[in-house]
Design brief:
By secondary structure, the chain is an alpha/beta fold. Helix content is about 35%, strand content about 15%. It contains 14 helices and 13 strands. The strands form three sheets. Strands 1-2-3-4-5-7-10-11 form an eight-stranded parallel β-barrel, surrounded by five helices. It starts with 19 loop residues before the first helix and ends with a helix.
């Protein structure tokens, strides 16, 4: 099958476009359908309301870090257009909205008292959501570490500061937020930000990034304790990226490399949170991964806190081959994944050529979402709480036509296929039967600043014109389709 991005204008891409009612009928009673965003990617207002700098601010200012040379100082201008965006949420008819609190907006120095101006912005957002009948799911950390916290996640003190921050935010908003996510994708932060250096803060420490992983997980445990101490009424969980892993061949070297990637990307995080221990690394890597075997048991007890739900962010499976990656060439779109640019790790990711790909190069493989859910069930059994897919979506090359409309049937297909795959997987006899799947959050409500891709990738149900200073918004056909799905439940 071709590895070129899906052509959103082909007849094959229109399979679900006129089947909104059918999908709506398939959604179980009580199954939550929502949308998701993150603060750094949409808010803008970088110098407004006393916001402090985050790790991503200087990173985006560095030459060559962001594909189109852009930054997120304005982003989608959600900071000033929050009321408009709540209207889009209300008219969509979704059940919930997953957003993140910008740590450096709420607590500019990463310590001390919370900012009244920062709190006021989220007060306004929460009031709007609740008035619209939309359930708020707040993520405490979505990659934007306050710059004043020197060393970032390499510094154990950052975990302590995060626990304090969580407690204070819980006291401020605990009566109005229905669900809390402590961290978003600590695996991605560790691998991209501290092992490979492709994301902020740009550290390329390879296996030396393990302390960043441990400190994030410790921060998660402390945050759960802080929220509970604040007596928040909402459920508490974490969201991590899970990628089912395959070896590129039956060769022993490839099998060991796949086991190593599974430990670093999946099990190191879920095992610690759900089982209170780190997985044993493959024997050849016991020395560089000795942190996993020598962790203070008290830390692991803190990390393993009772959770109300577990969040799964799914993009694609990973096929792993032993040996370092070949140097990258400028031809073709960069592929989406935590290890694609590394040339020093003892493994590399190779493409699933049997699947079509999104505009970001990610394999469109909805059946592997069921595999991911099944792995969670098989590995964690009774220790696995109810699960939400906390982020699922795809970038496509959306272009407004001469009338300003944006037609994106490929996104409609993608969302429908992943939703139906998830529901089929947890049904009786499915690959993940027994998993309590409570909902699916679509990434993303709005086109936004997509980290190192800048504004070159579009994930939103709502199109944003980044060339216009007012950031006008236009619902895409996927937004209108999802309205019909939700209305048909």
């Amino acid at each position: 099958m071709s590895t070129k991005p899906v052509n959103s204008n082909t007849p094959a891409a229109r399979a679900w476009e006129h089947r909104a009612v059918e999908l709506g009928d398939r959604l179980p009673d009580g199954f939550v359908v929502g949308t998701a965003t993150s603060a750094f990617q949409i808010e803008g207002g970088a110098r407004e309301g006393g916001r402090g700098e985050s790790s991503w601010d200087p990173f985006t200012a560095a030459t060559g870090r962001i594909r189109d040379g852009s930054n997120a100082s304005v982003a989608t201008d959600h900071f000033t257009r929050v009321d408009d965006d709540v209207v889009f949420l209300r008219e969509l008819g979704g059940d919930a909205y997953r957003f993140s609190l910008a740590w450096s907006r709420v607590q500019p120095d990463g310590r001390g008292a919370l900012s009244r101006a920062g709190l006021a912005f989220y007060d306004r957002l929460l009031d709007g959501l609740l008035a619209a009948g939309i359930s708020p799911m707040a993520t405490l950390y979505h990659w934007d570490t306050p710059l004043k916290l020197r060393g970032g996640w390499l510094n154990r003190d950052t975990a302590m500061r995060f626990g304090d921050y969580a407690h204070q935010v819980g006291e401020a908003f605990g009566d109005r937020i229905d669900s809390w996510v402590t961290l978003n994708e600590p695996a991605t932060v560790t691998l991209n930000g501290y092992a490979l250096g492709t994301d902020a803060p740009g550290e390329a420490r390879l296996f030396g990034a393990l302390p960043a992983a441990h400190h994030q997980l410790l921060a998660h445990g402390l945050a759960v304790q802080g929220l509970r101490a604040a007596d928040v009424r909402g459920g508490i969980g974490i969201a991590n990226a899970h990628s089912p892993v395959q070896a590129a061949s039956g060769r022993e070297a490839d099998e060991v490399a796949a086991q190593l990637f599974d430990v670093l990307h999946n099990r190191m995080f879920a095992d610690a949170v759900l089982l209170g221990r780190y997985p044993e690394p493959p024997e050849p890597y016991a020395v560089p991964l000795r942190l996993l075997l020598e962790t203070d048991p008290d830390d692991l007890r803190t990390i393993r806190q009772p959770l109300d739900f577990y969040g799964l962010n799914y993009v694609q499976p990973s096929r792993i081959k032993a040996g370092p990656a070949a140097p990258k060439t400028p031809q073709g779109p960069p592929r989406e994944g935590p290890a694609e640019t590394v040339v020093a790790f003892p493994f590399h990711v190779i493409p699933f050529r049997e699947f079509p790909v999104t505009g970001s190069g990610a394999a469109i493989a909805p059946e592997y979402l069921g595999v991911a859910l099944g792995e969670l069930r098989d590995r964690y059994s009774d220790d696995l709480p109810p699960v939400y897919v906390t982020a699922g979506g795809a970038a496509f090359p959306d272009v407004a036509d001469k009338w300003g409309a944006v037609h994106d049937p490929a996104r409609i297909d993608y969302l429908a296929e992943h939703l139906t795959a998830a529901l089929a997987a947890v049904a009786p006899g499915g690959t993940a039967a027994g998993v309590s799947l409570r909902g699916y959050f679509i990434w993303s409500l709005l086109d936004s600043f997509e980290w190192t891709a800048g504004y070159t990738r579009r994930y939103g149900l709502v199109h944003v014109d980044f060339l216009d200073g007012t950031r006008p918004r236009t619902p895409k056909s996927s937004y209108r389709w999802l309205q019909k799905v939700l209305a048909a439940r």
